[in-house]
Every structure is written in C-alpha cells, then in structure tokens.
Design goal:
It is built from 11 helices and 31 strands. By secondary structure, the chain is an alpha+beta fold. The structure holds alpha-D-glucopyranose. Alpha-D-glucopyranose binds next to loops.
Length: 605
C-alpha cells in the first residue's frame, strides 16, 4: 500500500513539475510540436503569381498591394484570369526547392495556399475543374509534390484553404455580394458542393496534414458563414485527421471554442503579450504575400530575427512568407534573408526552438528580449537576446532573484565564461571582451533550478537611469485618462489628470547615494496651478506645476502642439541598497488638467 502511495506521489509530483516547466498551460497535446517548432514558412503561390501585381499594364487597384488579390481588385474575368497560367514555366517549378529553402532556413513546417481566395486549387480536385491538374499537361498536383517533399525532408505540411471567400464559385463569398447579395441557401450550396468535398480530398489523399490554415479574419456573426458550417468543417477535420491543427481564422476564436488549436494574429502583427495558448504571426519579408514585382520594401534579416524572437519571448510562433514567381523561383531578396536567418539559427537555435516566455514582463528591458529553456540534464537557461548593444559594454538584467551559475555567449562553442555580478535582483554582465554578432547576440545565463524573480520592478535602462511611466506602475489611484501618442508622435503618450492622482513604482537601487529626479509634463494653464510630489526613501520632493506653453511640431503647417518639458524636481538620497517604492502624487485643478508623461531617476555623479 505504502509503495503504491509513493508511486502515486511521484506521478503527481512529476505532473506538477512538468506542468510547471510547460509555462504555456493551454497547449493541447496535438499542438505541442507546433509550439516547439516556433518558425515556419508560408507559401503564397497560385495563378496570381503570373500577374506579379500588374494586369493589362495597370498596377493592382489597392494601396494595400496584396498581389494575390488582383483577380478581385482589377475585376478580372473568371476565364481570362486563367490565361496567366500561360506564363508558368512548369518544367522549372519544383516544390521540393521551397521545402529545402525552408529547411535550410531553420523552419519546421510549410503552409501552402492550396486554395486562395481566387478559388483555384493547387491539387487534382475531382470537385472542380478550376484547379491546376485540369490546366497542366502532363497533369501537376502541387499539394502532392509538396507533401512528398515534406515527408522526405522531415517538415510538417500545412494547407491554407480559403473557405469563406471564393471568387470563382457563383455562390462563394466575394465582397461584391454585399451589394448583389446571395441567400444563405445559395451560400450553403457552395459550402456543401465545394468546401466540404474539397476538404475531404485534402485530408484524405495527401497523408498527414500538420495544420489546416483558414483565412476568415472577421467573426462569423458579421458575415454569411454560419457557426454550424464552421463546426461541420471542423468536425470533418477531427474525423479524418485527429492530429491536424486548426487555426482561429477558421472564424472561431479559442475563447469561443477551446478545440481550436492556435490563434493567428493579424497579417504582420507581432505579439505584444504572453499568451497561454499557442499562437502565431503570419508575416512577409516585404508587404505582399503573392509575388509582386513592385513590392520592394524588404525588411532586414535582423528585423525578421527580432520578430521571431519577440514572438518566442511571448510563447508565439512566426510564419514567414515566400511568394515564388511563375517559374517557381523565390525572389533573391527573400531567400537570401531566410538563409541568413537559418545560419543564425544554426548557431543560436537553442534559444528559439523549444524555448518559451520567461516569467518577467517581456518589454522590461530596453536592450532586447528574453527567452527561457530547460534541458534534459536539469539545467535552466535564460537567453538574453541583445538587440541594442549597450554602449558601455555592460548589460544589466533587472528582476532575476537567483544568482546564475555561469554566463557565456550562445555562439561560443567553448562557452568561455563571461564576467558577471549578481546583486539581489540585478545581474550585470561584462560584454567588453566581445564582438557583437552582426545580427543578434545571445548571452546565456545558466541556473541549477528555475530562477526566482521579483516582478514589477522598473528595469534600469541602458543609460543607467530609471524611466517611470504610466505603463510600468505597480499601482494607481484616482482619475486619469490615458492618451496614446498623437500627431505623428510629436505629442507623446501621457495621462491627463484632473483632481488627485497617485502612482507607485518599484525600483532596485544597487548602490546607496543620491538620485536626481526629473518629471516631464505639459500644463496649459496660464499661471502656476496644482502641484506634484514625489516620495521615496523617507524623503518628499514637492513641485508647483508650471505652465509649459506650446511648441511647433513641423514648420509652416500651422502645427502647434502642447509642450512637454522635463523639470528637475530635486534629489533623493537612497541610504542603502535595496528595493524602493517611488510614489508620485499629482494635484491638479479640475478645469486645468496636468498631462503627466514620465519621471526619470538617475544617480548623481
Ligand atoms: C489576408 C489576405 C490574404 C493573405 C492572408 C495572409 O487574409 O486576404 O491575401 O493570404 O491575409 O495572412
């Protein structure tokens, strides 16, 4: 009996420990591979790739230059659209090349537009002759070719299927039907005779499908699709392929239906907060998804890596798009950047694959982002991704309460130890012996157990000061209106205070001494009115609110804006090292609001 109890205890404990390690608590088993994968390839390729964003000499009719929308935007005829296929060089089109590029770039899955909004299938569909097999000789089946290449090279296969929008089917949804209307019965005819049978084909004929990627970016209640139709579609997936993931652009959010496996954010929308369920950002290297010859604003490799790392630091995934040309070639600007990402990941992948969000707020540090990972040998690692190299070669991390056992550069095979100092909750690393990585350097902090944290501290900035803003308080009291930046950023984000307002922050002071305290605000009253006080370490500083006047945002455009000015409030002595609370109290007249922006604390020389 005792023995059984012990076994049970061990089981319970190991579940607890595992539960603890997998911070992303709302990940179902099916989606675990996706969470670990972190990085995937999106492939937008279809008839539109032949147009390259131009039709009969005219550029795509929309400022949002999505080349795959040319059929709809430029009002192209259903049959004439297919003449674009004459431009395709079928002999040179080889989906295995895309898979190889994905693999060399460190991506773990690919998602192909099996059917985009134009309704044209990239497989041999019995359901419709608006498909690639009916327009190629010898017949091509791109889904099959890609599926085979994925199997061969060990990548998961995802399929994009535009279920809601279909421009070629008489009763599929296209936005013109907002004017000309169709009945729910007609739409259901499209659904039952095209969507359902095509989905059955895709889920039956091509082996295991890692994910079905749907693309309805509005909620079903705002359009013609019914929840029943979406459920019918999801049931079919669950019936035919138990392990296939479904994304939230099915038209159902995870909150509405927890059986949806992951959330897809908006196009090129990166994560801003840690989520407990799996999620992903679809992104492009320039702007368009389909190949667009006029689309040339390429993001840099560093920018793309930062996006990937940003998402991993919040438990997210990043799916980066290629829009191959009509001969199958991937634009050089895309493949070159992806391969550079792959080279970086070969060295630094440990901080991305299988890594996850750490417990500290992700936007705490101005030098970059943190991810966290554990290893089979029991090591716990914190990965510091240095986006902005500190000019004084000293990297400071605020909030980790456990002293690291060691620190080294991830790319350094010898793991040569870096000098560091750990002071209660401040870890400082000496980077002076290092050359920054041309893209992003990763510093590893090693621990024997999951490091403890002190949450809610304001991190020391790269300049050595503390920036106390409405976004990093530990508490607030009183009325205030949050105002985001305005007029192209010339008016900074601030809070408007009428009457009384109080905010508190927490900082860690590592060296006793005096700190200068500055406050930035705008006050449009004509004479001094109201006051603010700052309390910390048993001292109080008071300040009468002064008029700050106006300034000009841009010349000759009648662009007058309120002036935000930094005021020296005084000096506070912090007698010993430790965590201190800083309290700000504002008293403003009801009809003369104060617009508070920030406090800045900095050690006196
Ligand atoms: C949008 C567009 C589509 C593109 C997709 C990628 O939904 O309609 O063209 O495929 O975003 O995320």
């Amino acid at each position: 009996m005792k023995c059984i109890l012990q076994v049970r205890l061990i089981l319970v404990l190991s579940v607890l420990i595992n539960g603890d390690l997998k911070a992303q608590s709302q990940t179902n088993e099916r989606a675990q591979w996706f969470v670990d994968a972190r990085f995937g390839m999106f492939i937008h390729w279809g008839v539109y790739s032949g147009a390259e964003g131009i039709w009969k000499g005219e550029k795509l009719r929309n400022d949002n230059d999505y080349a795959e929308w040319i059929y709809y935007r430029n009002r192209i005829d259903r049959e004439e659209y297919l003449t674009l296929l004459d431009r395709f060089d079928w002999a040179s089109i080889d989906p295995e090349e895309w898979v190889l590029l994905a693999k060399r770039s460190g991506m773990k899955y690919v998602t192909l537009t099996a059917k985009h909004h134009d309704g044209f299938g990239l497989w041999d569909s019995e359901v419709s002759d608006y498909d690639v097999a009916d327009h190629t000789s010898p017949k091509r089946d791109i889904v099959e070719e890609l599926a085979e290449a994925c199997r061969k090279h060990g990548l998961k296969l995802g399929l994009y299927y535009s279920h809601w929008v279909d421009w070629e089917h008489e009763f599929g949804w296209d936005h013109t039907k907002e004017i000309y209307k169709i009945t729910p019965e007609q739409y259901d005819q499209y659904w039952q005779e095209k969507v359902m049978p095509q989905m059955r084909e895709l889920l039956t004929n091509y082996g295991p499908i890692g994910m079905m990627w749907f693309d309805m970016w509005i909620h079903h209640s705002n359009t013609i699709v019914t929840k029943d139709q979406l459920m019918q579609l999801k049931s079919l997936i669950r019936e035919l392929q138990l392990d296939c993931l479904v994304n939230s652009r099915l038209g159902l959010s995870i909150e509405e239906d927890s059986d949806v496996d992951f959330r897809t954010l908006g196009d090129n929308q990166l994560g801003t907060g840690k989520l407990e369920y799996p999620w992903q950002s679809p992104a492009t290297v320039a702007h368009s998804w389909g190949y667009h010859t006029l689309d040339t604003e390429w993001k840099s490799t560093t920018t793309l890596l930062k996006s990937l790392i940003n998402n991993v630091s919040l438990n997210g995934n990043f799916m980066l798009n290629i829009g191959p040309k009509s001969n199958g070639d991937v634009p050089y600007e895309i493949s070159q950047r992806m391969l550079e990402m792959g080279d970086w990941l070969k060295v630094n992948g440990e901080s991305v694959y299988g890594a996850e969000a750490f417990d500290l707020r992700s936007d705490l540090h101005d030098w970059g982002k943190i991810t966290y990972g554990t290893e089979a040998d029991g090591k716990h690692k914190i990965y510091l991704h240095v986006f902005n190299w500190p000019y004084n070669n000293r990297l400071s991390v605020t909030g980790i309460a456990t002293a690291p056992r060691g620190a080294y550069v991830l790319g350094d095979k010898l793991q040569s130890p870096l000098r560091f100092w750990h002071n209660e909750v401040l870890t400082e690393i000496d980077l002076s012996s290092l050359q920054p990585d041309p893209y992003i350097s990763v510093i590893v902090l090693v621990f024997d157990q999951k490091p403890g944290i002190v949450d809610g501290l304001v991190a020391r900035t790269r300049d050595g000061g503390y920036s106390l803003v409405p976004g990093n308080t530990i508490s607030e009291e009183g009325e205030r209106t949050l105002r985001s930046q305005d007029r192209g950023g010339t008016v900074p984000a601030h809070i408007m205070v009428r009457g009384k307002y109080q905010a508190k922050w927490k900082i860690f002071v590592d060296e006793p001494g005096n700190m200068k305290v500055d406050a930035s605000y705008s006050f449009q009253g004509l004479k001094t009115a109201g006051n603010l006080s700052i309390k910390a370490a048993n001292s109080t500083l008071r300040h009468d609110i002064l008029p700050t006047g106006k300034t000009v945002g841009e010349p000759n455009q009648n662009w007058q804006i309120d002036n935000y000015r930094s005021h020296r409030i005084g000096t506070i002595n912090f007698p010993e090292k430790g965590i201190y609370e800083i309290t700000l109290e504002v008293e403003a007249e009801m009809d003369n609001p104060v617009n508070f922006q920030w406090l800045w604390l900095e050690a006196e020389d």
